[in-house]
Write a structure and sequence with these properties.
8 helices; single chain; seven-stranded mixed beta sheet
């Protein structure tokens, strides 16, 4: 009888503790703004992570592959189920984006869901394709403990000469908003490196004129380590540009 009573008391205590933890999580969830990062290699992160990129910013979190949150730490794309090998996951724009967003939203926690894959064509991000479906599934999962706030997109190197890119990105935005149940979900696209021969950058720049609730960030003045990938300094700047563009959409 004593053992049974002891077990009963323990069960009650555990139930109370679990309920308390749930309430604490719910309180945090109410203030968590969740952002999805998708695209190819620059969004996955290819810039070198230096000492100043290893600091953990306040009120910034990363969604893990176990469906929970942890303090934001580089590389951010390490939990992407379809990433390339871990050694290729480096600094992406999400780090300085989250840090600056936290500064502009002092009452919020910034939650990052990173689902990028290097070398991908926008056609691989069609509804029904694994990349797209996985990103939507993880965003829905993250929404259980936060509020969907926006999407950051960086892709286009693989479609640099695609004159129909504008149609494909418009369809992508429409599908994401529909499947996530948010018709006006803010969407920010970033340009690839500047090249007069590439058709994709002009189409990205025209996105806000064609789709409400969208913005773009230019790649003016940013440097690359090769034909494709922004260097560390440029990646930090790029992330801050994303934050500025996203903040304007959120404040409308």
């Amino acid at each position: 009888m004593k053992i049974a009573a002891s077990l009963a008391v323990s069960t009650i205590i555990m139930t109370i503790l679990t309920a308390a933890q749930s309430v604490a999580a719910d309180n945090n969830s109410a203030n968590r703004m969740v952002f999805l990062l998708i695209g190819q290699s620059n969004m996955a992160g290819r810039a070198e992570i230096l000492a100043e990129d290893e600091a953990i910013p306040e009120r910034c979190e990363l969604f893990t592959d176990h469906g929970d949150w942890e303090p934001l730490k580089n590389p951010l794309n390490r939990y992407s189920r379809y990433r390339k090998e871990m050694g290729m996951q480096r600094l992406n724009p999400g780090y300085t984006f989250a840090r600056k967003m936290a500064g502009m939203k002092p009452d919020a926690t910034i939650g990052i869901v990173s689902c990028a894959r290097g070398g991908t064509n926008i056609d691989e991000w069609e509804r029904g394709e694994f990349l797209y479906d996985e990103a939507v599934a993880r965003m829905r999962q993250a929404a259980r403990s936060g509020t969907l706030a926006g999407i950051l997109w960086h892709q286009g190197e693989a479609n640099r000469d695609d004159t129909d890119y504008h149609l494909k990105i418009e369809r992508l935005i429409e599908n994401l908003r529909e499947d996530l149940g948010m018709p006006g979900l803010p969407f920010v696209a970033g340009q690839v490196r500047k090249s007069e021969d590439w058709a994709v950058n002009k189409q990205i720049a025209e996105l806000p004129d064609n789709v409400p609730g969208t913005a773009y960030v230019n790649s003016d003045g940013l440097e690359t380590t090769d034909n494709w990938h922004f260097d560390t300094k440029s990646m930090r700047i790029f992330g801050e540009r994303y934050a500025d563009a996203m903040a304007k959409l959120l404040d409308r």
